[in-house]
UniProtKB/TrEMBL annotation:
This is Glutamyl-tRNA (Gln) amidotransferase subunit A. Residues 20-35 have a biased composition (Low complexity). InterPro entries: DUF620. Residues 15-36 are annotated as: Disordered. It comes from Gossypium hirsutum.
Length: 478
């Protein structure tokens, strides 16, 4: 019988031998590969058995268009060409077969340069908006929750404090959460641009399962206020991190930059993975009412970003006007079941009219399970709407995107994790970049021809033949 050794059992053996995640960091000043890549590599012997040892490999953590293999399965070698069938997890192909099929497909048809260009443009938009967004305000993991107070406190504030006390208790209790020094999570996800709207046309991608980009992510956190995430989708990788003093992000099209404004948590960690930071995030929120979510009564907590933080996050022609966060907490379980935030940005071009961008992210958290006593959401989905308006009357565009994710592994107090694992990349630029800078860049590159080609490309997706039903179910909102 084939014997498999758990990830953290093997990791503990490495720690005993004196190895730590920081040993895998590249010797060059710039980050050449993930500091955690060697922790997730397994050595395969000639008999297809695993000895549980982790060896340094130059390959990237993400295999086959960003897909992550479940723990215990063989990690296939990195493919050298595009995967024609989307790189689904669970495929077993020999090395080179994907490249051969791709070359054969290119010879059998004439590819559309415009279609390939806008496919990359869609992927860039997906990763830019949904890859590594940050929370609205600064939160420190060392900040205690406010004590429940009724005297001289507005009812909206005291109600919110009571709801957060219940949420903390339902998530495992404050004492247990305070014992967490670091955390690790690994998951799979799928992203898709499912709808595009102009004043005259609305194009919906009806075959979202076939057109979805598959990938995965790895997230590490450590007190105080340090985190690092790697996310790869469709062959492109975004990684971001925080060493407690600055937040940075690296994308293939912008390189490495620091983020504007105060240090803020990663929004992906608030989606059911970090209840302590989530409770601290809503510490200054107000309870504004109730709402049914999937037939379940929920309290609504509202948090508004203060003007000073909005000003610090604005840069150049891009000004963030508002950023509001809503949390929906179940009255039955006390857990967070939905989180919605939106921010409005005004971009003033030279000598032209102002253009407004509103980005709304609505996340649903599902499948809560206990991990070492902490309740963690093991699946969920997000619906993102990017709405652009301004310039002239009756001129707007709206793009709707979706993401679905599942959590494969979660663990706390991982041995061997050190502050060296959260060092920013050596090629980090001295100039900072705001989360709206990409929007202003897109403004300069926008043209009527590009919009027409994009609509034609999305419309062509509707004519594609339906493939086999995908295991991931995508739900469209009205």
């Amino acid at each position: 019988m084939e014997k498999k050794q758990g990830f953290f059992s093997a990791l503990k053996q490495e720690v005993v031998r004196g190895l730590s995640p920081s040993r895998s960091r590249s010797s060059s000043p710039a980050r050449a590969r993930s500091p955690f890549a060697t922790l997730l590599r397994r050595k395969k012997n000639n008999h297809n058995n695993y000895d549980g040892a982790y060896v340094a490999q130059p390959e990237s953590l993400i295999v086959r268009s960003g897909s992550l293999r479940p723990v215990g399965e063989a990690l296939a070698p990195l493919m050298e060409g595009p995967d024609p069938d989307g790189g689904e997890v669970g495929d077993s192909k020999r090395v080179g077969s994907g490249l051969g099929q791709w070359v054969k497909g290119q010879l059998s048809r004439t590819p559309s340069v415009a279609s390939m260009s806008y496919r990359r443009s869609d992927l860039r938009l997906l990763l830019g908006v949904m890859g590594a967004p940050l929370a609205p305000v600064h939160v420190s993991s060392t900040d205690p929750l406010p004590l429940l107070s009724i005297k001289d406190t507005p009812i909206e504030t005291s109600s919110a404090q009571y709801i957060l006390q219940q949420y903390t208790a339902a998530s495992g209790g404050q004492k247990l959460q305070n014992s967490i020094r670091n955390a690790y999570a690994m998951g799979k996800l799928k992203m898709v641009a499912c709808e595009y709207e102009t004043p005259t046309t609305t194009v919906k991608n009806r075959n979202v399962s076939k057109c979805a980009e598959s990938g995965g992510f790895v997230l590490w956190q450590m007190n105080p206020d340090m985190w690092y995430v790697e996310l790869a989708v469709g062959g492109s990788k975004v990684h971001a991190g925080c060493n407690g003093k600055l937040v940075w992000r690296h994308t293939p099209w912008l390189g490495a930059h620091t983020a504007k404004g105060p240090v803020r948590p990663l929004r992906r960690a608030l989606q059911g993975l970090d209840p302590r930071t989530t409770a601290s995030m809503f510490a200054d929120a107000r309870c504004i009412g109730e709402k049914k979510i999937n037939g379940e009564d929920c309290f609504i907590l509202k948090l508004c970003t203060d003007p000073q933080t909005l000003k610090a996050r604005s840069e150049g022609p891009a000004e963030i006007i508002r950023h509001v966060l809503f949390g929906f907490f179940s009255q039955k379980t006390g857990l967070l079941v939905q989180m919605e935030d939106s921010h409005l940005t005004r971009i003033q071009s030279n000598g032209g009219d102002a253009v407004y961008w509103e980005t709304a992210i609505n996340s649903f958290l599902e499948d809560y399970r206990s991990v070492e006593g902490i309740m963690i959401a093991h699946s969920g989905r997000s619906v993102v709407t990017l709405f652009r308006f301004g310039e002239v009357a009756m001129s707007h565009t709206k793009t709707k995107m979706e993401e679905a994710w599942t959590i494969e592994e979660v663990a706390f107090n991982v041995p061997g994790l050190s502050v060296d694992c959260f060092i920013p990349p050596g090629d980090l630029r001295s100039g900072s970049i705001s989360e709206t800078s990409e929007l202003s860049q897109d403004e300069r590159g926008k043209s009527a021809i590009a919009l027409a080609a994009h609509r034609a490309k999305v419309a062509a997706l509707q004519k594609a033949q339906d493939g086999n039903a995908d295991s991931m179910i995508w739900r469209m909102e009205a």
